[in-house]
Amino acid sequence: MSTDAASARRVVAHTAHLDTGTLAATRAMLHSAFDGSFTDSDWEHCLGGMHVVVLDGDEPIAHAAVVQRRLLHHGRALRSGYVEGVAVRSDRRGEGHAATVMDAVESICAAAYDIAALGATDRALGFYTSRGWLPWRGTCSALTPEGIVSTPVDAESLFVLPGDSGIDVTGEITCDFRPGELW
Amino acid sequence: MSGPVERAPGLDGAPRLEIAHSAQIEPARLAAVRVMVEEAFAGRFLPDDWEHCLGGVHVMLFDGDDPIGHAAVGQRRLVHRGYPLRAGYVEAVAVRPDRRGEGHASTLMERVEAICAAAYDLGALRSAERAVHLYERRGWLLWHGPCSQLTTEGLLPTPDTSSPLYVLPLERDLDRDAAIVCDPRPGRPW
Fold first, then answer.
1. By residue range, what is the domain housing residue B161?
2. Quick one: CA torsion of A166, A172, A176, A179, rounded to 10 degrees?
3. Is residue B170 part of a domain?
4. N or C of chain A: less Cβ packing under 10 Å?
């Protein structure tokens, strides 16, 4: 297997247009990159939108997904590009692959959504900040069939790219309902 | 950004099929598609109806540079029996008026259904009255149970008898006599 970063190529495709072998290999890579803490619902959250995958040969070495969600803010239901499953295989870190996938993710979000949002892991906070993502400073909640529930822990890891939406990062933001972790 | 994922050249003068995410279509081309859809819906297509087409995959038919057919599949969550299903929600299925009766709607829906099958728990759409037979013939099933929308004020019933909800059941077991709840968005709930 090549370890030459120059041999890697980037693929951008919807879930429906990635072959099932690449999808399965990507899921396995995510599971390993997140040290086994990547759950079935974390994978479910990656499906139904666009995947950006860096492949070395047939092997995925980096990935990010952008799916569509509605985020409620100041009475608006913003069409959001929600970023999930951002990971680089542990032996291929430090080669710029995270930047490669995020370049494509941010282009997709700028072209197709009102705002972009993601929940960052602790070790990625500096990476997103350096790319212009803003930490959410207000409160977070989720709209569930039982009503609006507060999700305070998520406020610490939520980052947004506001685009032209004019959102107020010190206000409240409410996500739609989904299985597993709400944010 | 890379371009459309699929470009099938038209054979013998047949229209060319293109499938691409909103982010992969040039703004001028997307604007031309919107104009065609507005014309096809004869003034009943509102700005929010177009908003509902964005952020997902567009299946388009072109004759030369002119769009003559369109359908969009966006991602939504539909809550059914307590579970938020990942739905491929179909919007703005339209064929230019002078190109109807040539089978283009079926061509578009074949691709839409393949996208739903590969990426979502189910397909869903609100059918215009005149299109009900097309969807039924293709295996889409009428939803009989109550429909509502999840809003910040709670569940808002969304009765609409003129444009019924149809679903394409895939892996999931659906009870079409039970309730189904859509997520919030601007404009028409369904």
1. 6-182
2. 130
3. yes
4. N
